[in-house]
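DATA SHEET
Item: assembly model
Revision: 1
Owner: S.N.
Input lines:
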Amino acid sequence: MLNLDKLFTNYNIHQFNEELITWFNREKRDLPWRHAKNPYRVWVSEVMLQQTRVDTVIPYYNRFMERFPTIETLAAAETDEVVKYWEGLGYYSRIRNLHEAVKEVASVYDGVVPEEKERFEKLKGVGPYTTGAVLSIAYNQPEPAVDGNVMRVMSRQFGIYDDIALPKTRKIFEQVVRRLMDPAHASDFNEGVMELGATVCTPKNPMCSLCPVQETCYAFAHNVQDELPVKTKKGAARVEMYDALWIEKKGKVAYVQRPDKGLLAGMWQYPLTERGTGEQVNGTYLGQVKHVFSHIVWYIDLYRVDTLPTDNVVWLDASERETKTVSVAQQKLERLAGGERETI
DNA sequence: AAAGCGGGGGT
DNA sequence: ACCCCAGCTTT
């Protein structure tokens, strides 16, 4: 454990806050969740932004808020429709948890996002980061909101070499933030550090010449920006091979629903079998799709076949298919099948 | 503490 | 090819 007192010896806390917040208020990007700011909008944006880039989130956020502008509209909606608005965004447990949490806020807290930390942090899908982000950004409470940006900025600012891949390291940065943050400007502080990490203090080639807190930065002073933060890397993703079946009869296509737990829970797809586990596919080979997850790589061979592989299929016409939620891997397969259909 | 969980963009 | 992103839950 590192010595906080030592870290802050001769460190100008006031200068950091002053420069950061002045910079943030001058340079901050115009983002949808910074308009008509309220706790619900902040919360939705923070969940969408988990492990997901701002540019990816923006169109999803706008569509989502247009359809579910309030706690009440989201709480009243069917899960299937809500999940459909998340299609393509990934980490689908986020939206199932958010929907359940919002329903709880509607029923238990009368539709008001709880301001008490011990209540908010117990909601589904709300972890340490989201707790700090919502309480600080929406309610201006002096809580740390430590994400990858914050760990990168702080590791450089203070020369902290702890491995940010380890869960316990986040707590160190929370202590640093608690000590550094001007409690009167919690919202601007947290958003400002993240904005700095996203736009200036980037993982590769940080733009130190543009940095408002260059003067107080350990990494800049010692020219070690490129070795911070320290992060151990994970092993390579495993490879899995599948056969997918495109079966179309009288304008309807066979689909199966994935199990309600695990990878892509509950989502719809063509019948899919792990290669080599069943009998040889008897059909026309249409091509291969590659799909990369963070921990798995899928190679899927697509076949057009005439026979039913399993009795668990559901036959969907085009409009029925539209309402189902599918993974991007499935979208790639359908594109392949669609291109093939035109040649028939 | 480690693994599971999506997808995309930057270098 | 590798990195990593406004992380949380389960094991």
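QC remark: The two ends of chain A are 67 Å apart (CA to CA).
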